[in-house]
Design goal:
The protein has 141 residues and is of the alpha+beta class. It has 4 helices and 7 strands; from the N terminus they run E-H-H-E-E-E-H-E-H-E-E.
Amino acid sequence: MKIAKAEDDAAIAACFAVRRAVFIDEQNIPKAEEWDAFDASCTHFLAEDDSGPLGCARLIAMGDTAKIGRVAVMEAARGTGLGRAIMLHVIGAARAAGFRHAMLEAQLYVIPFYEGLGFVAEGPEYDDGSGILHRVMRCAL
C-alpha cells in the first residue's frame, strides 16, 4: 500500500475516480456538488496498491489551517484501516507544511472515526448541499 501526494494528472484522475465511485455512485451526491474550484488548487493524496486506487483525500490551505476533505475509501478496502492511514498521512503532511490547525466537514456517521484522530465536533448539523448532514470538526496540529 502506498499513500502519497497525487503529483501528476494520472494520480489526480485516480483520486477523482475514487471520489466518483464513493460519493457520486454510492452516496448519490450530485456531480455539481462533488466537483468544485478547489480541485484545481488543493493538494490531492492517493492511496493505491498493485490492484489500483483504493482511497483519497485532499488538503486546502486556509491560512494556518489545513482543511481536509473528500476523504474516500473504496468499498473493497473499508474496514482495513486504510481510512485511518490516509488521515494520518494527510495530518502528517499538514504538520510538515507548518499548518497549526486542521479542520474538516464530517458526515455525521463518521464523526466517531474523526474523534479517534483527535478532531472535535463543533457547531450545528447542516446539509452541505449534498443532502447529507455534516458537522465541522477541528483539531490542533
